[in-house]
Specification:
Elements (H helix, E strand, L loop, with lengths): L6 H7 L6 H7 L3 H16 L5 H5 L7 H13 L3 E9 L9 E7 L1 H16 L1
Antiparallel strand pairs: 1-2
Amino acid sequence: MPRPLTPAERLAAADKDSTLEQIVARSGDWDRFLVEQAVWHFGLTKDNFSANDLRDLLPDLAHGYLGAAINSLRTAGLIEHTGQMVPSTSGPTHGHRISVWRLSVKGLVIAEARRLRKAAA
């Protein structure tokens, strides 16, 4: 059985135009993969972001995956903590502090490589 791809490998291999069927075929945990993609694309467009920024953009089912997706991208070295914390806007969390993230150098390198591949196509 082939080893599962890391988040960095999945993001580097994923095309923007991937269909849901392709995502499901590549990953048995497609819900988390879709949330990882949302976090990744948000990171590409914003200098800094937190779960507060993403929560309203995701369907209710995805909210349970948001923390896991952020942690997965952090563990893969694609995003990094900015050192800032903000209060959570999620009601059930009662305003506890959450991290603010940005793309890491590794994430920026992958993003630039994808941009260059797309421009060359």
